[in-house]
Amino acid sequence: MKVIKTEIEDLYIIETKIYEDNRGWFTESYSAIKFKNNGLEIEFIQDNHSLSKEKGVLRGLHFQLSPRAQTKLVRCTRGSIYDVAVDLREGSPTYKKWFGVELSAENKKQFLIPKGFAHGFLTLSDNSEVQYKVDESYAPEYDRSIRFDDPEINVGWGIDNPILSEKDKNAPLLVNSDCNFKY
């Protein structure tokens, strides 16, 4: 397993070893031991799986408030997505900064997003499937979102009119959010 640091502290790209032969390929998509050996001690408790039928679907930017914040390990198992994390930890040197990476069934990369970050993704192909692990259960009373096009954050999505849920269409700007993350 290869853990690649990004320009934002605690945000990592994970690459697993791929074993290929004439039959296809195999990988350990997650290993608690390998994570621990790389200094990443996270107890994942739930796996989630989504399908976005069309290219141009944007989901996000989502997070859960403390004390029910979630760490996420995200991968795209069919199609491709542009996956984004935004540092919402007030006092962090990278507060309000974002980082994006393409995740696809082809490249098999994963994105490790810690507590204190908003997460969102844009589908780059039809029928994109995203699977992710979380270390905290879904808690509707702590569930929050901020606008994907918040000018204070200015994520470079590369799309003007994405396909959005009603929740994401009506998400507040960060300045109007009750986000409670501290660095």
Automatic annotation (TrEMBL):
It catalyses: dTDP-4-dehydro-6-deoxy-alpha-D-glucose = dTDP-4-dehydro-beta-L-rhamnose. Its EC number is 5.1.3.13. Catalyzes the epimerization of the C3' and C5'positions of dTDP-6-deoxy-D-xylo-4-hexulose, forming dTDP-6-deoxy-L-lyxo-4-hexulose. The active site is at H62 (proton acceptor), Y132 (proton donor). Keywords: Isomerase. Homodimer. SUPFAM superfamilies: RmlC-like cupins. The keyword Isomerase applies. One of its GO terms (molecular function) is dTDP-4-dehydrorhamnose 3,5-epimerase activity. InterPro entries: RmlC-like (IPR000888), RmlC-like_jellyroll (IPR014710), RmlC_Cupin_sf (IPR011051). This is dTDP-4-dehydrorhamnose 3,5-epimerase. The record marks Y138 as: Participates in a stacking interaction with the thymidine ring of dTDP-4-oxo-6-deoxyglucose. Pathway: Carbohydrate biosynthesis; dTDP-L-rhamnose biosynthesis. It comes from Halanaerobium congolense. GO terms for biological process: dTDP-rhamnose biosynthetic process; polysaccharide biosynthetic process. It holds the Pfam family dTDP_sugar_isom.
